[in-house]
Amino acid sequence: MAARPPLVALKEVRLQDGQRPLFEGVDLAIEPRTRSCLVGRNGAGKSTLMKLVMGLIEPDSGDRSVQAGTRFAYVPQEPLIVGETLLDYASSGTAEPWMAEAWLTTFGMDPNKSAKGLSGGETRRAALAKAFAEEPDLLLLDEPTNHMDILAIELLEKEIIAAKCAALIVSHDRAFLNRVTQSCHWLEHRRVRTLNKGFDAFDDWAAKVQEEEAESLRRLNKRIEAETYTFYRSITAQRTRNEGRARALEAMRQDRALRVKDIPREIHLGVDSGVTSGKLVADLKGVSKRFGDRTVIKPFTTRLIRGDRLAIVGPNGAGKTTLVKILLGELAPDEGTVKLGANLEPVYLDQSREGLKSDMTLWDALTPGGGDSILVRGHSKHVAAYAKDFLFQEGQLRQPISTLSGGERNRLLLARALAKPANMLVLDEPTNDLDMETLDKLEELLEQYDGTLILVSHDRDFVDRLATSTIGMNGRGDIVETPGGWTDFIGQNPGFLSPSPSPSWGGTGGGAARMGSVRSSPTPAADAATPPHKGEGETSRKPAKLSFKDTHRLKELDALIAALPADIAAHEARLADVNFYSRDPSGFDATMKALDAARSKLEAAEEEWLEIEARREALQP
Fold first, then answer.
1. Fewer CB atoms inside 10 A, N or C side of the chain?
2. Quick count: other Cβ atoms within 10 Å of Cβ 612?
3. DSSP H or E stretch at residue 46
4. pLDDT tens-place string over residues 499-520
5. For position 534, what pLDDT does the model report?
6. Together in a domain, 475 and 507
7. Are residues 482 and 569 in the same domain?
8. SS3 assignment, position 419
């Protein structure tokens, strides 16, 4: 079958960004009804290339050809919603009002809703509805899953797959790209390479390309080394030296310099888990929370142990941030109890990017107390050197944050958060706007992190790679917890996150248990369906409550666990005196032994507390 003519084709396109060449000889063709992704590092020019494809900007040189009558629809990274209502906005282009209304409804938006004061997810869904309603031949989407919850992302996947148009998509969401793409365009070294397969084949292909380039550079270095020796040291060459040979050697050197310059810098991430927290991080029993008439959390019980990697998933507005604040002790529940462990040093990376003011410079953001240095995990480091670790150029340090891209702002948040020692990391939507290379580095860092991780994310692949357990919240107050990541959760709780309760899910808020951490409670429906057999009775009946001895010991342990951190802090404060040892060596040794003993006593008390709590939970019906 003959190849279909492309809707849009770029040939030998070149473009300068100030003094920096952005594209050098870009070739790109987009065929009808083909779903493609455009991938590359932050700052490579993906958004600019999409604008070139649409004809919004002109190249410095090269050709752009478009099939006659081709209609475009474009959703940028940060859509601007204008008009009185969402229907006004969605029908402000080429879409018929009835079509705009239908697509707004499909994406869960009220057409009569005001276009002002929208959340990030609502803004994204409104922009997508407008784009689909215009019935384009080519749909261009720049980071379409940012700020969208998992249900909205899955809906978008279905609509893209069912659409009759072609699509060009920039995204960092691997699971999303695996589902929807049929080809990949890789923007690297100011050029585009194309793979005529879906994104699930991209990583292996890209690794092979990089290996071939590294081998090519190695061979070029060998040729330059041999030619340089011959040119300057061989007596024979000195007699026959000519300008042509000199030009060839210089050309090889320039080629090498260009290739080395094109090797992208890698982000350098590090994390310090600080002092060891208590084994028990948080213990929630029967916790519930309401805001007005709305129940956000129905009675829920869970326990977080040091080293756990907990993911929290659910629709936007389901209460994920509320649950995080309860876990951190920042928000009191309406009912139930929250017990926090000892020596917790949490760092919270907030998706709202609070603390970053648009007129603040990058320098100001990294050094809020002033000066030219930042304390990085206990060591002083110059702000320029630390910023370089996160791929910022020195010239950016005095620029306002408003000039940074979404990915750069997220890297800045990571830089601020990871500078502090923390035995608990709370990351709220950390993947937004980050490129895949940075995401891979972040995943590697978190895999090696020995503290406790709480991850709020819509990125299914990211959750699958990191989470040891997953809590799902459906927005109706129900919560269920499952061992493993997203795939495990959705496999064991089909329909739980759907807008209406699914008959296949029988939970009522207690949730499936994380192994070794959370009690699994039978549902009321299950209890009613399985009455006890007659005559079963006394021999199989369990004690109704803890023994007096265990109950008394639990109270003692509660008091001990509450008091010991203060003793530990007092010993540590004495040892912080740099002159303590020289002034009183025996006192120093005694304090060290007392500190070790207090830490061991706290560890043992927490272990015993957990054992008695496990017995108490096993006795409950």
1. N
2. 17
3. helix 46-54
4. 764 433 433 333 333 333 333 3
5. 41
6. yes
7. no
8. coil
Parent domain of 368:
359-418
Q: Which of 531, 345, 435, 429 is nearest to 119 (CA)?
A: 429
Structure confidence by residue, pLDDT tens digits, 13-47: 999 877 778 888 899 999 999 999 999 887 788 88
Distance CA(503)–CA(481), nearest Å, equals 18
Task: Give the amino acid at 200.
Answer: D
CA distance 126 to 111: 9
Looking at the structure, tell me whether residues 155 and 245 fall in a common domain: no
Residue 466 and residue 446: Cα distance in Å, rounded? 8
570 and 469 share one domain = no
What is the rounded average pLDDT for all residues in the chain?
81
The verdict on residue 274 lying in a domain is no
Could you tell me which residue, 407 or 30, shows the higher pLDDT? Answer: 30
Two structure tokens written together for 506: 């029988």
Q: What total of structural domains would you count in the chain? A: 5
Contacts of 385 (CB under 8 A, 6+ apart): none
454/467 same-domain check:
yes
* Confidence band, pLDDT 50/70/90 cuts, at residue 530: very low
DSSP single-letter state for residue 50:
H
Evaluated on CA atoms 318, 321, 322, 324, the torsion sign reads positive
Is the separation of the CB atoms in 7 and 66 below 8 Å?
Answer: yes
Q: Do residues 95 and 130 lie in contact, with contact meaning Cβ atoms separated by under 8 Å?
A: yes
First to last CA, the chain: 67
Q: Which two tokens stand for residue 484?
A: 């493993």
281, with CB counted inside 10 A (0-12, 13-18, 19+), is: buried
Any domain includes 541: no
- Tell me how far apart the alpha carbons of residues 39 and 183 are, in angstroms, rounded to a whole number: 11
Over the stretch 391-403, which tens digit does the pLDDT of each residue have?
Answer: 788 778 888 888 7
- Strand, helix or coil for residue 377: coil
Q: Cβ atoms within 10 A of the Cβ of 594, count?
A: 16
Q: Which residues pair with 234 in a beta bridge?
A: none
Residue 482 near residue 498 (C-beta atoms within 8 A) = no
Tell me 544's DSSP state. Answer: S
Q: What are phi and psi of 504, to 5 degrees?
A: -75, -10
In this structure, are 65 and 105 located in the same domain? yes
Neighbour count for residue 458 (Cβ, 10 Å):
28
DSSP β-bridge partners for residue 400: 361
Say whether both 489 and 375 belong to one domain.
no
Of the pLDDT bands very low, low, confident and very high (cuts 50, 70, 90), residue 442 is confident
Nearest to 466 by CA among 456, 474, 475: 456
Eight-state DSSP code of residue 277: P
User: CA 39, CA 171: separation in Å to the nearest integer?
Assistant: 7
Q: Based on the domain organization, do 26 and 152 belong to the same domain?
A: yes
Q: What is the pLDDT of residues 338-378, one digit of tens each?
A: 988 888 888 888 766 566 777 788 888 888 777 788 878 77
- C-alpha distances in angstroms, 338 versus 127, 287, 308, 469? 41, 8, 17, 20
